[in-house]
What does this fold into?
Amino acid sequence: MDKIAVEQSPEISISVVSHAQIQLIGCLLHDINQHCRASLIELILTLNLDETLPFAADSFVFPIKVIRNPIPIGFAANHNQAFTYAAGRFFCVMNPDVRLNDNPFKALLTCLQDSSVGVAAPLVLNESGTVEDSARRFPTPLKIFCKAFGRCNGSDYLVKDNPIFPDWVGGMFMLFPRDVFKKLGGFDQRYFLYYEDVDLCARLRLKGYEVVLCPDAKVVHLARRSSHHSFQYLKWHLMSMMRFFCSSLFLKVLWLRLKKNP
It folds into this structure.
């Protein structure tokens, strides 16, 4: 691992993984550098494929730790690996295709002051400024079937000015208290891609933690929707979906929902 010395203990460790996306990550790093100077941040950059950095790691106001994987690994394994190098009191998982127009961390940390909250997420917008459906109820086979036929496509939650407490939030941007992520054992590495966020939020819920979306924090997501265009990504998506639906965890969260809404 390449490492730049950290002069001051960071408050937030950000984990970003590149799958030949280093140009996107360069833009994200410049966003963080411009908008997040008030936050004590370190960034852990995992190169899942062999890439050359087109920028100097010491050209930013925050330190960067670079992990170079000898062979590619999945979403869960990459972020769990990054967590072992993280020094911050909070651990942030962020996609390379996220862009920042301001600092989302102040509002997110305010939401995390409540010790019952296990993960906080920002309001996610697409490039045109429309709110993405990043806060959802736990999926069910019936809901997936309904969506496949062009129905049930509306948002599960109405987002206004106040925080909302969805079943789960999308993995493009998640901020955890360090102790909570450690207690949960991180992401389940049996998922290679997709549903890691659903699984982790389900385990948080069963441990009594809340999942919160904080509308005062906003990010832009340049979503590629790879599973819509690639058979391999679609295969990973379907395999992860079936793993979740066939797990005891799925039955437990259904039972939890039934108890809350008899």
